[in-house]
Amino acid sequence: MMEVCDRLPCAFAILEPDGLVSFANAAFRTLFNLSSHPGLGGPDLSRVASGAVRSLKSLDGRILPVNPVTFGGGRTLVLVEDKSSSSPAEMTERRDALTGLANRVVLKEQIVTALTGPEPDGTETALLLLDLDRFKAVNDTLGHPIGDKLLCRVVDRLRATVRKTDLVARLGGDEFAILQRSPKQPEAAKALAQRLVDLIGRTYLVDDHILNIGVSIGVAFPPNDGNDPDRLLKSADLALYRAKEEGRGRFRFFEQEMDARAQARRTLELDLRRAFALRQFEVYYQAQMSLHDKQVVGFEALARWRHPQRGMVSPAAFIPVAEEIGLISQIGEWVLLTACREAASWPGNQRIAVNLSPMQFGKAGLVETVAAALATSGLPPERLELEITESVLLDDTAGTLAILHQLRSLGIRIAMDDFGTGYSSLGYLRSFPFDKVKIDQSFIRDMPTDGDSAAIVKAIIGLGISLGISTTAEGVETEEQLNRLRAEGCTDIQGYLLSKPVPASDLAAIFNRSTHP
Ligand SMILES: Nc1nc2c(ncn2[C@@H]2O[C@H](COP(=O)(O)O[C@H]3[C@@H](O)[C@H](n4cnc5c(=O)[nH]c(N)nc54)O[C@@H]3COP(=O)(O)O)[C@@H](O)[C@H]2O)c(=O)[nH]1
């Protein structure tokens, strides 16, 4: 009886007909300081049983309404309404079900306490916001049960790292927070963050799986970095975002300029979402010339965003944002269709090269989208070249290769862009029969002055010759670069020496130049 009752979600007692307590549950005993032996002290409840008293004063001075219900044998059940008490139901609401850690509600309460400022002994609080790196990949590839076990192992390490006076909370998914109390802030927060980065980043063995994840951490201090829980959490989140931006597996303290940057970034996002509807995107075309006969053999389609206030926004600035907010597929599809339509209207049979973002591979229907662009525009497939970067092949290589083969079977060409800048350029050349490699412009730029760059360019061109793959040097700006590339056997060039990217309306001049060099 006692065990079950102690788990009931309210305080209650049973009174005998004479008003004596014959039973009280733990919540009731705590509220009114009753001994665990009923009948041995506490408030006089005889007037409660008679209905003359409808409220009782608790040990901590609160006046709590009581509900007497008479039942068999003249006994009375007294129920106490204590909305602030930690009943078991509310307990579950304050704890994370998987890990048993405190949840966001508890964290915010404790932040409010911390906001009162340093304690007399100089103790100050730091908020550390943690986000696990690469956890999603574990969950997605090995399933949620393994993901859950890994989370529990992470929590073991968190608990082992903090002090008893610190609070560890789980905010959801793979996001955790620590409120660290120390008289030696900010040094203590710095030391804890560094320890966590080291410890969480060590290998885990979960059900025979060797797992490697990491953690990124943002740190904020109340009240300077936020004088309410939401503001403080936001500051820590901005610092966390910066830590991730800088390469993950590290920590950053909040700085005011992060706020300004986040505002600017939010405005850019909003403008970018509107840009499509407002038809602010354009496609520019940059010529590619064959070094064999100096003819323009193709053009690369490059997205441009003409912003009414900012002017022309570089794709280097907006493509990564479009990728993050999931807009890149829409932009990429539009560029593809626009470029195919444009190329289909050209007088010659020059190729059109279109960039594909790694995100477009993650979205179903890429092959169908490309086939539809060809069908709608009437462009022969052999005139379309899709440029991908190595990052496309980093994730789900088997799935990506299957898509590449399907695209190839449509009759289009596949080029490897920015060759030489990735982790395993040569390996990727073995994994798929690319039609072309584009030598990254950084090597071309440094080629005249840097022996290593010159050697890399020479090696890539040599590789292309042996594998029967054409090579396009990007970013060619000088005659000297052109002559060296020709001497090495490079097949094509692209760069300002030939032409900058131009709008479709300026292409006629390039076609004429090509016909009458
Ligand atoms: N997924 C998509 N990515 C796109 C799309 N359109 C562009 N991009 C990518 O954005 C990056 C920046 O592009 P951009 O500013 O257009 O720069 C290109 C050229 O203008 C520049 N270039 C060309 N020649 C020279 C030169 O002689 N000197 C010099 N300093 N820069 C030069 O190089 C960029 C072309 O790069 P690449 O694509 O690697 O051939 C860029 O990564 C684009 O790929 C899009 O529609 N989708």
UniProtKB/TrEMBL annotation:
SMART domains in the record, alphabetically? EAL, GGDEF
Listed name of the protein: Diguanylate cyclase
Q: Which GO terms describe its biological process?
A: cellular response to nitric oxide
- Reactions this protein catalyses: 3',3'-c-di-GMP + H2O = 5'-phosphoguanylyl(3'->5')guanosine + H(+)
Q: Where is the GGDEF domain?
A: 123-256
Q: Which NCBIfam families match?
A: GGDEF
Question: Which CDD domains does its entry note?
Answer: EAL, GGDEF
Q: Which InterPro entries match?
A: Biofilm_reg_signaling (IPR052155), EAL_dom (IPR001633), EAL_sf (IPR035919), GGDEF_dom (IPR000160), Nucleotide_cyclase (IPR029787), Rev_trsase/Diguanyl_cyclase (IPR043128)
Domain EAL, first and last residues per copy: 265-515
Write out the GO MF terms. Answer: cyclic-guanylate-specific phosphodiesterase activity
Q: Which Gene3D superfamilies match?
A: 3.30.70.270, EAL domain (3.20.20.450)
